[in-house]
Design goal:
single chain; mainly alpha; two-stranded antiparallel sheet; globular
């Protein structure tokens, strides 16, 4: 994997760490951002997350890589990690409507509807239900709520 022969007496890096081989850390930040986007678009969310984790660890300030990392975690059902990344975004930018929307959806999937409702109300107040766009410009999709028999909110896409 990384060119080093396997030695069972030496500790091995944990599988799934961002830098267990050079591929995930190879290239400039722009190269890795583009590569992560390709994996995300191909619905290989776990690989995209591995690349994005390295980018976010290197420079935690930009919101876009952290949001895409949260989306990759969400789509690969790593909901605890998605929640942590979304909360980190909201610590930096409390009025980030898309992060509020994603956090609400993440909390819903975790079976925490009361917490989700508060985040979704804030997202709606910030305009997330008025054509919110996902990072990269993709429109968020309407979600059908069968209990209300109408389209409500937005679905994290």
């Amino acid at each position: 994997m990384n060119g080093t022969p396997y030695n069972p007496t030496q500790p091995q890096p944990a599988a799934g760490t961002a830098y267990d081989d050079g591929y995930y850390a190879h290239g400039t930040a722009a190269d890795r951002w583009a590569r992560a986007g390709l994996f995300f678009d191909a619905k290989d969310y776990s690989t995209a997350a591995r690349i994005l984790r390295g980018l976010v660890d290197e420079d935690p300030r930009p919101v876009a890589p952290r949001l895409l990392l949260a989306r990759a975690y969400y789509h690969s059902a790593q909901l605890g990690r998605a929640e942590a990344e979304l909360r980190a975004v909201l610590d930096r930018d409390p009025v980030e409507a898309y992060a509020r929307l994603m956090l609400g959806r993440t909390l819903e999937r975790q079976g925490r509807p009361d917490e989700a409702a508060g985040q979704l109300r804030i997202a709606a107040a910030l305009g997330a239900d008025q054509g919110c766009r996902a990072p990269g410009g993709a429109p968020a999709q309407p979600r059908y709520d069968s209990s209300r028999r109408s389209h409500t909110s937005l679905m994290v896409g």
